[in-house]
Amino acid sequence: MKGPRDLDAPWALFLDFDGTLVDIAERPDAVVVEAGLPASLSALWQRLDGALAIVTGRTVEVVTGFLGDPGFDVCGMHGLERRVGGRLSRPDGLADLGTDVAALRSAFADRPGVLVEDKGVGVALHWRLAPEAEADALAAMAALAARLGEGYRIQDGKAVREIVPAASGKGGAIRALMEHPPYLGRIPVFAGDDRTDESGFEAVNALGGISIKLGDGPTAAAHRLPSAPAFRAWLHRWAEGVTGPSDLPAS
Ligand SMILES: O=P(O)(O)OC[C@H]1O[C@H](O[C@H]2O[C@H](CO)[C@@H](O)[C@H](O)[C@H]2O)[C@H](O)[C@@H](O)[C@@H]1O
């Protein structure tokens, strides 16, 4: 009988993007997709009979642009928008935050290291290139979240604070995908590096799956690998059929 520890168990694979499939870069537009990654993802997509999805804080459009528009599923905006089976869906009635994006750009115009990432119905404020601006960035985003009200939530990450619709969440996206083929009946595996991935780890743990934290820090994940490159090396070996989730070290 097959179980979670079998190499050939019927896995479903969920993957974070930043800090997992690509290394963290100084700017969101500067990440590099390493040679061989799209081919390995395609091989795994086929090996898993289509049960592979990227679950990311980026928009679906941005991630598919980086990866060369792969056929596999992508959940963007921390699970808010979902391209499943080639069809994109997102909740109706969400306001575009363009006015707030413009106000943030104006407020930080004299601090060029602070980057405002326009995500349409959400916004991210980055201070990786201006660490001295962290307190002001946190305060500006807290004020904006308070003004926008209960339809939104704050998502903190690595040198970034985001405001996203409250309906977002990686755990919810993974649970929703797991209710339908080709994911239904499979054992979920989710790898990520960041605070936004914790709800995904919790969802996968509750579903009897395998959660993988990359790097340091407290986590709900049951397994850990030291870095994004270490994870991708393992992913390439899984694509070649020489390892799998049964070989992962405990957290
Ligand atoms: O869920 P993820 O795929 O991990 O996306 C989370 C956020 O990642 C991006 O920001 C982070 O990566 C940037 C590029 O390496 C880095 O410059 C930044 O400091 C990090 O916070 C992305 O820009 C956000 O939109 C994602 O939500």
TrEMBL record:
InterPro entries assigned to the protein according to its UniProt record, in alphabetical order: HAD-like_sf (IPR036412), HAD-SF_hydro_IIB (IPR006379), HAD_sf (IPR023214), OTSB-like (IPR044651), Trehalose_PPase (IPR003337)
Gene3D superfamilies given in the database record: HAD superfamily/HAD-like, Trehalose-6-phosphate phosphatase related protein, domain 2
Keywords: Hydrolase, Magnesium, Metal-binding
This enzyme's EC code(s): 3.1.3.12
Biological or metabolic pathway of the protein: Glycan biosynthesis; trehalose biosynthesis
Keyword Hydrolase: yes
Co-factor(s): Mg(2+)
Pfam families: Trehalose_PPase
Source organism, top-level taxon: Bacteria
Signal sequence extent: none
Molecular-function GO terms, alphabetical: metal ion binding; trehalose-phosphatase activity
GO biological process, one term: trehalose biosynthetic process
Protein function: Removes the phosphate from trehalose 6-phosphate to produce free trehalose.
Family (UniProt): Belongs to the trehalose phosphatase family.
Protein name per Swiss-Prot or TrEMBL: Trehalose 6-phosphate phosphatase
Organism: Enterovirga rhinocerotis
